[in-house]
Amino acid sequence: MGGPRDNKMDSQLVSLCAFLCLSALPAAAQLQTAQISGANLPKGTLVLTFDDGPDEFQFEGGNQTLQIAALLAEPPAPLAPIVGTFFLNACHFIGAPPPSGLSANCHTNHGNIPTSLIGQLRALGHTVANHGEDHVPGDYLQDAGLIYEITNPLTLLAGPEQPHMLFRPAGFEWDQRIASAAQRNRLARTETGPFFADFIGSGYIGANWIQGDWDCFRQGYGYQACGDLYLEEIQQSDHGGIILIHDRSPYRLAGQQTFLMLQYMLGQLGSESFAPLESLLGVRKAVGLSRQSSEFGTTDGFGDIVFGRIAGGFAATPCKSRADGIWCMEYSGNEFRPARRWFEFSSQFGLAPGQTFWLADLDGTGKAGLAWEQSDGIMFAPSTYDASSGGQFHAPRMVLPYSDAYGWRQSTGYEIRFGRFDRSGRESLLVRDKTGMRVFLSSGAGLALAFASGQFADAEGWGGAANPLRVGDIDGDGIDDICARGPNGVSCATVTAAGIGQVSLYTVPNGPFSDAEGWAAGPAASSSFALADIFGQGRKVPAGRIGAEVVFAASANQSFAGEQQLLDTLPTDPTGQAFPADATQWQTAPVYFADIDGDGQDEAVWMLPGGLWFGLTQIVLAPQPD
Q1: From CA 29, how far away is CA 561, in angstroms rounded?
Q2: How is 24-63 classified by DSSP, letter by letter?
Q3: Which residues contact 298 (CB under 8 A, 6 or more apart)?
Q4: 455-460: Cβ within 8 A, 24+ apart
Q5: Backbone angles phi and psi of 603, in degrees to 5
Q6: Can you tell me the distance from the alpha carbon of 449 to that of 408, in angstroms, rounded to the nearest whole number?
Q7: Which of 70, 149, 286, 440 has a CA that sits 20 to 30 A from residue 104's CA?
Q8: Checking phi first, is residue 223 left (phi over 0); if not, alpha (psi -120 to 50) or beta?
Q9: pLDDT-derived band of residue 622, with 50, 70 and 90 as boundaries?
Q10: How far is Cα 462 from Cα 487, in angstroms, rounded to an integer?
Q11: Which SS3 state, helix, strand or coil, does residue 285 take?
C-alpha cells in the first residue's frame, strides 16, 4: 500500500473494519461489496500477506520478495512452513504496459522483473494474488479504468496451478460503486475478494504515530522497532487476523529491512499458528488435472456419458453405450478400473446402441440401476453390485406403461429426468412435456403419477435443446428441485412434499448464465449446463462451460450469486503436455459434473477424443460468522 495514498491513514480504516468488513465469507465468494477481514479467526491464528511487490532490489539469493518466500518455506523452529499470499502489481513485470499517471508505485519500478518470479513463488508453496495493474486506488478511476486495473493482471498472474485469483484493492479503496462495476464484468467476477487486513504495523513509537511498516521505515526506524508495532497489535487484539506487510521496499529504501523485520517477528511468534488466506473462504481448486482414462472418449462407443451411484456409496460411476451393451468404469484407488459390460443389448428389451439411458435408484437399494424407454413405457434393470463379485444390471422390468393421454412426444422439449422428489430414499421420474411437468413417484415396484405443474411449459417459451431441465437439491432440504437455463438466466422451482413450487428467476436478469452473457449458442447452452455440488455442502448450483471457461455460481438463499471460474486453462496429461493440441477440441468437448471419488464434491469431467479428463478437487471451507 506504500505511496501517497497511504496518507489516508490505513490504521483508521482498520479501526472501522468492524462496520465495513466481513469477518468471514461463505463459500464461493466473488468481489463483494464488503471487504474481507480475518476478525473471525481465533486468537493465535494469523494469515501472512504481502503487498506492492515484487521488490526490485537484488540481494544474494534473489530479491527481497524471493528472500521472504524462501524464509516462509523454511521458517525458524518450531514453526512449520507457512503459506504466504503475495498481492503483486503487474506493472513491475517485464512487458507491462506503461503505468498510469495516477500510479503510486509503478513509475520507479516499471517493467523490470522477470515473469519467472511468479512461478518461483508458487514453487515455494505460496499463493500469487492480484493487487492491481498500476496500484491506482479505485476512487480515482471511472468504470473502464477500474476494470482495467482489476482485470488486466489476470493474463499474467493466473495459471493452471492457481485458476482462482484473490484480489486486494490499492489503498483499501473499495465501495459500492467500485464493487458494482466489478460485479458486472465477466473477468472481474472470476476473482475473489476484496481482502482487508487486521494488522498493518501501526502505532506509536514515542510521540510519533506510525501509519504502517512503509511509514515506519520512511521515518528511519529500524526493523525491530517496526516489527514490534505488529507484535503489539497482535498481542492487544482479542482475535487472530490478516497481517499486511509490504515486501517491496517502501519509498525505494534500498536494503533488506522488510525481510529482517519478518525474520524477527517469526522468532517472536513461535507459538502462533499460521493459515493460508484461502482458509477464510470456500475456495475450490482443481488438483492434478490430467487424462485419467483412455476409455470413454468421444470416439469410444455412442452418445453421452451417464454418471450414477451404481456401486452404492457416494461415488458416481461413468457408463457409456457401446455396440454390445452398456459399459461402466469404476473408480477405485485413485484410478479407473478397466470398463466392464454391465448390460448386454437384446431386441427383447428395446435398448439399442446409442439410445438414451439413465441411471437411477428406483428401488431404494442405494445403488442406481439402468432405466430406458421402450415404445410402450419406461424399463428398469436394478444394479446387483457387491464388492466381491462386481455387478450388473439385470432382470429388466416395466415400471411405467405409457398412456396416450400423456402426449409427451408432442412437445418441442419432451424430457425425462430422475431425482429424489420425496423422502422415501428412492429416486423418481420427472417428465417435462408441452403442458408442463409431471412427477411420477417410485414405490419400488413401479412409478405412479403424484403431482403436476403447468410451469416450464411450451407456451411459456421453454422446451427445445437450448433450455434443458436440470434436477438437483438447490436448497439443502434433501429433496431435489428443478431448474432450467433460459434467455434471462437460471430459473428454478423448489420441490417439497406438497409438490412443485413456483418457478422464479434465481439469477440477476440478463446476468450469469443468460443469453446476454453468451450462453445462447454452442455447448454452453445445452449439454454443458448442469447443477453441481461444487462445494460438497449438499446444495447444487448452476455450472457449465462457456468457451474455454468452466464456471459456477454460488448459492445465496433463494438465489444464485455471481458466475465464477472453476478452470480456464487447458488440461495436461501426466507428462505435462497439453492434450489435445487443438484447443478447439477442448473448448467444444462435452463436460460433465460428477462426484468421481465419493468425497461429496462434484468434479468437472471432459470427454475428449483420447478419453476422460478431470482433476480431483479440494476445498477449504470458510469459518462461519458468529
Answers
A1: 9
A2: S--BS--EEEEEE-STTSPTTEEEEEEEEE----EETTEE
A3: 589, 590, 607, 608, 609
A4: 455/493, 455/500, 455/502, 455/503, 456/432, 456/482, 456/484, 456/493, 456/503, 458/411, 458/412, 458/413, 458/434, 459/434
A5: -95, 155
A6: 14
A7: 70
A8: alpha
A9: very low
A10: 10
A11: strand
Cell 513463488 maps to which residue?
Answer: 121
User: What gap in Å lies between CA 518 and CA 525, rounded to an integer?
Assistant: 9
Decide: 512 and 562 in contact? Cβ < 8 Å: yes
> What residues are paired with 31 via a beta bridge?
193
Give me the helix-helix angle, 176-183 and 143-151, nearest 10°.
70
Residue 471 and residue 275: Cα distance in Å, rounded? 37
Bridge partners (DSSP) listed for residue 317: 308
Asked if pLDDT for residue 99 goes beyond 80, the answer is: no
- Our CA dihedral for 11, 17, 18, 22, rounded to 10 degrees, sits at -150
Residue 452 grid coordinates: 403436476
Using alpha carbons, select from 114, 425, 166 the residue that is nearest to residue 280.
166
Peptide bond into 623 cis (omega under 30): no
The answer to pTM > 0.85 is no
Alpha helices in 74-204 (DSSP H): 116-123, 143-151, 154-157, 176-183
Q: What is the mean pLDDT of residues 103-116?
A: 78
pLDDT tens digits for range 441-456:
999 999 999 999 999 9
What would the grid cell of residue 230 be?
505488529
CB of 324 within 8 A of CB of 347? no
Among 439, 344, 369, 435, smallest CA distance to 400 is for 439
Say if CB 617 and CB 287 are below 8 A apart: yes
What number is the average pLDDT over the span 496-525?
A: 81
Q: What are the start-end ranges of the E strands in 402-528? A: 415-419, 428-433, 436-442, 447-453, 469-472, 481-486, 489-493, 495-496, 499-500, 504-505
For residues 505 and 461, what is the distance between their CA atoms, to the nearest angstrom? Answer: 14
Strand arrangement, sheet containing 549-555: 530-532, 541-546, 549-555, 560-567
CA distance 215 to 266: 21
Give the H/E segment covering residue 597: none
Question: Which stretch of DSSP H or E encloses residue 266?
Answer: helix 257-268
Give 576-604 pLDDT, tens digit per residue.
444 455 556 666 778 899 998 887 888 88
d(C-alpha 248, C-alpha 54), whole Å: 6
To which residue does cell 465468494 refer? 29
Beta strands in 106-207 (DSSP E): 127-130, 165-166, 191-195, 203-205
Torsion angles phi and psi, residue 518, rounded to 5: 95, 15
CA–CA separation, 27 and 312 (whole Å): 28
